[in-house]
Design goal:
Layout (H helix, E strand, L loop, with lengths): L2 H9 L21 E5 L7 E9 L5 E8 L9 E7 L10 E4 L10 E4 L5 E8 L7 E10 L7 E7 L8 H12 L9 H15 L2 H5 L2 E2 L5 E3 L3 E8 L4 E7 L7 E2 L8 E8 L5 E7 L6 E7 L10 E6 L6 E4 L5 E5 L8 E7 L8 E7 L2 H7 L2 E9 L5 E8 L16 E8 L1 H5 L7
Antiparallel strand pairs: 1-25, 2-3, 3-4, 4-5, 6-7, 7-8, 8-9, 10-12, 11-12, 12-13, 13-14, 15-16, 16-17, 17-18, 19-20, 20-21, 21-22, 23-24, 24-25
Amino acid sequence: MKTGQYLLLLCGLAATPCLAAGRNPPSRETPFLTAELLFPLEHWHNHGSCVVECPNGDLLACWYNGSGERTADDVRVLGARLRKGARQWSEPFLMADTPGYPDTNPAMFIDPQKRLWLLWPTILDNHWESALLKYRISSSYQKSGAPVWTVNEILHITPGTNFQRQVNSGLDRLVDGPPPEMKPEEFQKWLGEKRALVANKLSCRLGWMTRVHPFILEGKRLIVPLYSDGLECCLMGISDDWGKSWFTSTPLVGIISSQPSLVRRRDGTLVAFMRDDGSADHRVQLSTSSDRGETWSRVESSDRPDPGAGVEAIVLRSGSWVLINNDLEKDRYSLGVALSDDEGKSWKWKRNLERDSEADVKAGAGSYHYPSIIQAKDGTLHATYSFHQKQSATRLGPDGKLATESIKHAHFNEAWIREGDATRP
C-alpha cells in the first residue's frame, strides 16, 4: 500500500479524531504526522502549491489549476484556507486569473507589515519562455473567501548591464562538463542556443518565474528567487523598498539548475538550493552569496539526490535545516524530508512523506512533488505538495471523468523527522 493511501486510510478526507488536522498537535517532543487532501481527487491539473501561516493562525494555500498550461488557456491560481482549530479546508476560491492566459507557479509570503503577497507568472503563448511575472498585495486576507487585493503590479525583471557577459562566463565554465545524456555535438548546440538567447533583450526580460517562498532578509530586504526555462539559469529579484523599485543579482548558471530556495547560515551567507535538470550526478545544486544575495558563487552539486523536481529548504528556530524534495535520482514517487544539524554539511535524518512500494512503482507509481514548507508559530511544520495518482483507472469524479490529482497537506514536527532512519553524514 502506498504511503499516501495509508495516511488517507487513517485520516480520511474528513479527518478522524485521532489524526484530525484541526486538533491541537501533540507536544513538540512527541513525533507526529497528520495528512489530508485539500479537496477530493479530480481530473483537473492541480500543481505548484505554496502555503503560508496567517497572523491569526489560519493556513492559506494556493496552487494552479486547469486543463494544462502548455496547451490550454484556462489555467488559474486557486486558494483554500484551513481555519485555526478547523479539521477541513475551505472550498477553493480564486486567487488570480488572467482571462485567456494560463496563470501558474504561485508563491506567497507575508511581509513585516503583515501584508499578504502573491507572485506568479502569466504564460503568454503556452511556452514557459513567455512568462510575464506579476504580483499583488492584500491587507485583508484573514476572512473567509479570497483575499481583497489592493495592489496589482507587473514585476519587470531587467537584468543588469553585465548580465550577458556573466551568463556567457558561466557557460564557459560548463564546457568541460557536459551532461552524460547529451552527445558532444548536442551540448555544443545547447551552449550556442543559450548564448543566442542571452544576446536578445526580450529573452532576458521575459520568462522569469517564481516557485518557492520569497526570502525576507533581516526584515528589510525582499529577495524573490527566479528562474528561466529559456535561459536555463537563475536570478534573484531584489527590492529594498517593498516593491517600489527592483534590481537583480548576478545569474546562477549551472547545467539546467532552476527554482532556487534560500536559507541563511549563522555567519550571514545565503545558500541557494536548486532543482537539478541536467547535471551528471542528479543532485540538488548549490550556490552561495556573501553580499546579501547580490552576487553568487559557481553552481555546484550537493550530496542530496534530485530527479529534476522542485526543492525547498528552511531554517528552523532550533537552528536545524530542513530540505524537502523528491529524494531519488529518477522519478517522483518518493517525497522525503531531510534534517541537518550542521547547516547542510550533513543530513543525518530523513523521513518520507510519500514513498510508493516496488509493486506500486511497477504497476504505475504516483507523483508527489513541488513541495512548499513552513514552520508555524507553534514550532510545528506544514508542507503542501502536488498529489498525483496514476493508478486511478476505476476512480471517477462526480463529473464522470478520471480523478487523479489534488494538493495534499502534511503536518508534522522536527521530532518526527528525527525518529526516521539515520542517514550517512
